[in-house]
Amino acid sequence: MFLLEMIPLVLLLGLVVFARWPLNRAAPLSLAAMVVYRLVQQNLIIAAPLKGLLVGIDICLILVGAMAFLEHLKSNGQITQIQEELGRMTTNKVVQALLLAWIFGSFVEGISGFGTPAMLIAPLMVALGFRPLSAVVVCLLANSTAVIFGAVGTPVTVGFEGLFTDAGFVRKAALVSLLSSWLIPFFIVRSIVKLEELPGVSFREQIRLSMLFAVVFLVPFYLCARWAYEFASIIAPLIALFIILGIYKHPHPRRLILAMKAYFIVIVLLILSRILLGKVTETINLGSGLSHTLRLNNPGIVFLLYVLAARGQRHIRSTLTKLSRVFVAVSSLACLSYLYFVSGFFHEIVDQVGRQLYFLLAIPLGAVGSFLAGSATVSNLFFANLIPTVYALHQLDPQILLMMQLLGAGAGNMIALQNMAAVQAAVSLHDQENRILKQTLIPCLIYIALMVLWARLLYF
Q1: 104-134 as b/e: b if 16+ CB within 10 A
Q2: Could you report the per-residue pLDDT of 85-113, keeping only the tens digit for each?
Q3: CB of 448 within 8 A of CB of 442?
Q4: CA atoms of 82 and 98, how far apart (whole Å)
Q5: Nearest by Cα to 186 from 159, 164, 205, 160
Q6: Which of 69, 185, 189, 282 has its CA 20 to 30 A from that of 137?
Q7: Cβ partners under 8 Å of residue 298, min gap 6
């Protein structure tokens, strides 16, 4: 049964990686295979597809808002101003990519989450002259470390709700992240140099820039996570941003701030929406242990309100026409992921592996959860339910299990198929999943392997 249940997932990966099918064709076919299997087993859980459709609507709302926001900025010349002012600070594309994707993107993750960073930053990078493929790849790679603690600690506070009284596992996760996440800026630099075909960037210079951006972000991230993890993904990028702006001095900082004013306004609105509307929710019970929460602080609503206030209705209408492909892909992937989560598939894995093997698999399993669900919080919610079973079977410390799940969920975000489909649509790139996975999968596996190594050395 276990092997049969793997067929839809293997089919999905085979169609995308080897047959080079786009996600809007491969995902529905894989979902159909899963539904047929469940019908044969007389175990089709209707709540899972319903949940998938609602998740698809949430993601598309963010996508419409982010795309309309960018189109509005293009039409009124603000993107040109940003390009000119950023060029006055540095013309080095590697530095620009690290500043936008790694630093600014991490800050957006800290205040917003929901996959917003890649959907917001990648189109900006394309507008500034980056190739669409390289913009997508580096934004996916960058949206990993900050995801560990996410938007105001949501992956911990919501993902592990009721499972811990001591946040010691957070400090352990922060240490492993500090020792491992220096790889991410290096991967970003390598990807930019390769995909943008930049001449004359020596390997030594790549290492220097990678280490600079790693240190200015990761040290504050680690220290903040030890004392107030909820704000680690907000405070650390801000500190890093001020340090980098101090190193790469702009001759007229006020001009740069004015050019970026629309982004600062949206950031303030996102923060206010989380503070004022974060608890204004309506939860729909779908059955089979699944529910869906409707939120007024969805980032897409903030973007849309800004565009409407600026009389940019035409940009909203134009983006709506581009949504059909991404909605099919994202909704199908979400349906498939929730069918896997509620089917007991992962419980079978836990039952069949030994203590040492599970220790090696805990971080990769967290990554698989994000890969399927497109969300670290959802990955934590589902895999956290396995922790009592794992403790009973293998006597592994629950704090260590929580730490490894947290780390894996963050890493898996860089290969999350739903995020991949959405960010491609945001930059008008189509049917490039095969090429994107080739650029993100190996870095993700290396990153996971290094975290597993540090976790084993420090805590096993």
Answers
A1: bbbbbbbbbbbbbbbbbbbbbbbbbebbbbb
A2: 888 888 899 999 999 999 999 999 998 87
A3: no
A4: 16
A5: 205
A6: 69
A7: 58, 61, 62, 114
Q: What are phi and psi of 375, to 5 degrees?
A: -150, 130
What would the 3-class secondary structure string for 296-345 be? Answer: CCCHHHHHHHHHHHCCCHHHHHHHHCCCHHHHHHHHHHHHHHHHHHHCCH
**In this structure, are strands 290-295 and 281-287 parallel, antiparallel, or unpaired?**
antiparallel
User: Tokens 């600062």 sit at which residue?
Assistant: 264
Residues 6+ apart with CB under 8 A from 368: 379, 408, 412
In single-letter form, the type of residue at position 290 comes to L
Per-residue pLDDT tens over the stretch 185-227:
999 999 999 999 988 788 889 999 999 999 999 999 999 998 8
The dihedral of CA 238, 93, 263, 53: what is its sign? Answer: negative
Tokens of 30: 């894989």
How is residue 152 annotated by DSSP? G
Nearest 10 degrees: CA dihedral of 23, 25, 31, 35? 180
Cα(236)–Cα(222) distance, integer angstroms = 8
Average pLDDT over residues 27-34: 92
If we measure between CA atoms, which residue out of 195, 184, 94, 190 comes closest to residue 147?
A: 184
Report the alpha-carbon distance of residue 448 to residue 368 in Å, rounded.
Answer: 11
Tokens of 181: 């996440």
Q: Could you tell me which residue, 409 or 318, shows the higher pLDDT?
A: 409
Pairwise CA distance, residues 394 & 404, whole Å: 15
Helices marked H in 76-180: 78-89, 93-97, 105-111, 116-127, 132-142, 154-157, 168-180
Torsion of CA 12, 16, 21, 27, to 10 degrees: 30
